């Protein structure tokens, strides 16, 4: 997928060029994979805390409890790279609003339908990334990107397709899963845009989290009908893990990757997230993991390998 030229500073405030691109590809891919695993834990944790905390409240605590850690990371990153841009950009604000919508509908989908259905519909996010980038930003995807996306979609369908249920009683939750995918696609594109404007990964994640926390606090005040605070230490620990691992870790690492990798390729992280979620649900919730799930995971890895950027491609 072609990209418009980015700022002449990389994520560390160092002039970007071919050498920096070559050096940054490996760490960016590692950040992408690690972020996917961290975000893959979120459905398990949301389900774990759901008996005590409502969906809007758990989404709020996910971002609010992560803010001190993200603020410290931002200060550390900008102290190391003083040439990084400070303040806000329109793209960072839009990323915060997109992530707010993503979290609201993702938490509703997890509780409104099966984990398999929610995951299946959420995995369509890369399709929307490609479509929005093509229609709105005039970025025509390469054949490799489309082939990799197709293989990943086949893998995602194989991974969760056996567990997907067509149930009229769950149609609202299924719809919320699709809306989640749309918002997640917008989040990828706006975070990428904010990174190209010279904001560091930590500042982007912190700004997104501040905006999301404000939006979700309003949702809690207006819409939450279930408890807001946990009443057990185990649920409180689950919320803290959701904040520190899935949000600060997962979203932070994704912001790092989006400073180096195209949004179209990076959006395939949601397929890795589905693989991680399936494995974690098997380990922690006892959900079945059979040959079809293993095949689906293999197809997803193959699709990502096909779509990966070439080392000669400008990534920063």
Automatic annotation (TrEMBL):
Pfam families: EamA (PF00892). It comes from the Bacteria. GO terms for cellular component: membrane. Keywords: Membrane, Transmembrane, Transmembrane helix. The chain crosses the membrane at residues 28-50, 56-76, 115-134, 146-165, 177-194, 201-223, 235-258, 265-284, 290-307. Residues 28-155, 178-306 form the EamA domain. This is DMT family transporter. It comes from Methylobacterium terricola.
